[in-house]
Amino acid sequence: MEDKNFNPVDSLNLIDSMLKQAKSAEKDKGADWIVWGWLLFITSITHYISIKLQWEYRGYVWMGFNVCAAILILYTVLRSVVFKRKSPVRTYTNLLVSRLTLAFFISLGVIFYGTAVTGLQSDGLVFGFLLQLYAFWMFIYAAAFRFSLFYWGAAINWAGAVFIFYSKEKLGAEVLLVHALCVGLGYIIPGHIAYKKFYRNK
Amino acid sequence: MDFKELDPILHSQLRLAVISLLIGVKEAEFTFIREKTNATAGNLSVQINKLKEVGYIEVIKQFKDNYPQTICKITSKGISAFESYVTALQSYLPK
Fold first, then answer.
1. Which of A25, A33, A58, B62 is geometrically suited to a Cys-Cys bond with A50, CB 3.0 to 4.6 A?
2. CATH number of the domain that B40 lies in?
3. Of B20, B37, B92, the CB nearest to A19
4. Is position B1 within any domain?
5. What is the DSSP string of A170-181?
């Protein structure tokens, strides 16, 4: 680009073009959705199978999830500290999403704590609270990265949450299938599509 | 019709491109700006220095993985200047 003076229309066109370039930097490859989606999906299905088959150690299934989750969170924190400024550009959207991720995990912790101390964890209602939190996160993500499939994911997760609260303890172990289905439709499928789209547009 | 004076610092193709790019992001590396503006490293460096001298942008020089890294971010003075420039531009456009 030569440095020259130019007319006001050229100026406006240039501003518009550069703003679009800046906007194109606001993207996410969706890898976190895939990793967390599969982790939640596999844990839910494994727990469901373990209940149906009366496995002796079925109570440890979510403990395994917690260990994996702790490792993932630790890795994410280390990655953001050690490999700080890895991206050549930091957008306001990326900054907002990183803060929202932190808020999401704090809310997740509060749900786990709250449902454990109130006894709601044992009758499966915790999954209703989890699904509505996932839905909230998906909705924000869809708006931030203009990826409409996550709006559908959010709608499915909200519907799943309402269904769980409506059914209450009648659902039994099947609550895990509802959770797995919502995670599959809300996390995994949109996550894989976002991932493909990211590399296709790169 | 009154034409408002255009800020000579911003009324230059490359400097305006840099400011327009930085207004949409929190901060960007020199390499990112060079890629998006298609400017040569030398020319871009000169224009970035001019923007820095007038206080429109902040330039942070540091090392990443033993390589020098230059990060640019727009300042509040730069944002005001950009807004005034866009307002002034509107006076040149047919209504």
1. A58
2. 1.10.10.10
3. B20
4. no
5. GGGGGHHHHHHH
